[in-house]
C-alpha cells in the first residue's frame, strides 16, 4: 500500500505528518518511508536513521561521434527539450537540459550517438528500528529532480506500507512522487494561501485519478473555507490538528512528536483509520 503525503505549498506540516505517521505505523507493520523532496530532504533529521548504503544516481546523456555524424539534423528536430542542437556543421549538446529519454540516439541514422552519463545526485538507504528510510539528495545546482525521485521510488519497492513524503507544490517532481500511489493525503492549513494551494493540489490529484483526503494542520487559526471547499468537492477531511506549541517545539528541535507527545498518537491513529476507511469504499 502506497500512501503519498503532499501539499500545494511548503510549511503546512507535510513532513511532520509523513515522518510521524511512518514511525508510528512501523511500531506494528513493515513500513518504508520515502523522502522524495530531493531538493531539500529533511525527513532524516527527524527519523535519524542509521545509513546502510549510499549510491550515486546518473542520467543518460547523448555523446555525438563527429566522425560518424552526417549533420542530418534529425536529433535536434526531435528533441523536445532543446538539449541537442545543430549549429552549422556542428552538433552541440546541453546536458543540463537533457531528460535522458534516448530518442536522439534511437533516431540517428548513422549511429553517431552513444550513451554517456551525468551524475544528478545520490540515494541513501537507512534504517531506524523497524522503519526503512530512503531519500535522494539532488546535486547542488542540478535541476533534473524527477529521475532521482524515480530512483528513490525504485529502491523503495516494498511489500508492506510505503509512505511517500512528496515535495511541496504541483509541478513535475510532485507528480513523479505521487504517481502510482494508492492514496494521497493533502496537508493544508485554513488560510487563504492554504486554500488556494489546496485547490491546485486537488486538481492535480484528480488528473492522476488517485483517491485522496485532506488533513488540516493548525485547524484553529483560520476560517472554515477549507472545510467548505472539501465539502463542495466531496473530499473527506480525515483529520483536523489544532495549533500546538509543543508540536512546534518538537519540530524545531528535530524530534518526532510521536515519541514525545502521547496525544499525537491519537491523531495519527485516526488519520490511519480514515485512510483505511476511504480505501475500503
Ligand atoms: S536524450 Fe532525449 S532529452 Fe536528451 S538530448 Fe536526446 S532527445 Fe533530447
Ligand atoms: S541524427 Fe545523428 S547524424 Fe543526424 S545530426 Fe544528429 S548525430 Fe548527426
Quick summary:
With 281 residues, the protein is an alpha/beta fold.
Features:
two-stranded antiparallel ribbon; 2 domains; 28% strand; single chain; alpha/beta; 9-stranded mixed sheet; binds iron/sulfur cluster; Rossmann fold; 281 residues; Alpha-Beta Plaits; 11 strands
Residue stretches low in confidence (pLDDT < 50, at least 5 long) are none
CATH topology of the largest domain: Rossmann fold
Count of the domains: 2
CATH class of the largest domain: Alpha Beta
Distinct ligands, ions and cofactors found in the model: iron/sulfur cluster
Q: Report the major sheet.
A: 9 strands, mixed
Number of strands: 11
- Structure classification: alpha/beta
Mean residue pLDDT? 94
Beta fraction: 25-35%
Radius of gyration: 22 Å
Residue share in helices?
25-40%
The 3D shape can be described as elongated
SSE sequence, one letter per element: EHEHEHEEHEEHEHEHEHEHHH
CATH architecture of the largest domain: 3-Layer(aba) Sandwich
DSSP helical segment count: 11
Strand arrangement across the biggest beta sheet: 3-6-7-2-8-1-9-10-11
CATH homologous superfamily grouping of the largest domain:
P-loop containing nucleotide triphosphate hydrolases
> For the terminal residues, how far apart are their CA atoms?
15 Å
